[in-house]
Write a structure and sequence with these properties.
five-stranded antiparallel sheet, 3% helix, disordered N terminus, single chain, 13 strands, mainly beta
């Protein structure tokens, strides 16, 4: 039997306590700080977040970095994961650089300095997760190059 979902946020359907999100209709977001936005071509869509549904302890989104673009070196308290969906990139974690592509999963420990570069002719698209209730709880600290 198919559930009759209730829609409350663009792209989100509530089915009992769960939320089903169609990322195709979720708006892209970016950095509010103009200085950070000027140095980063990353944009993202939050898919699972406590502000948008009943999620506790998990934030999931999809991000995209334009060809030649970068998510600058930064760190934050919670650990993070990436799962590459499309494109090629180089991830830097502390003093290690590794090329990544579709099917690559990356775990970033708490407080680890890291950056992500898109290498190639198509955008680098990846899923990201944090063990937090809401994305706004993740405080980014951008590091000097």
């Amino acid at each position: 039997m198919l559930a009759d979902p209730a829609r409350d946020v663009a792209g989100c359907e509530r089915v009992r306590r769960s939320v089903i999100v169609d990322q195709a209709v979720v708006d892209w977001e970016g950095w509010d700080d103009p200085a950070i936005a000027a140095g980063s071509t990353v944009r993202w869509k939050l898919l699972v977040d406590g502000e948008r549904g009943p999620s506790r302890g998990l934030v999931t989104g999809v991000a995209e970095i334009a060809p030649g673009g970068v998510l600058p070196r930064h760190h934050h308290e919670p650990e993070e994961t990436y799962y590459v969906l499309r494109g090629r990139g180089v991830v830097e974690i502390e003093d290690t650089r590794t090329e990544i592509g579709p099917g690559t999963a990356v775990f970033i420990p708490p407080e680890a300095e890291h950056a992500l570069h898109c290498i190639g002719t198509e955008p680098l698209v990846f899923l990201f997760t944090f063990a937090r209730d809401r994305f706004e709880e993740v405080v980014y600290h951008f590091d000097a190059a």
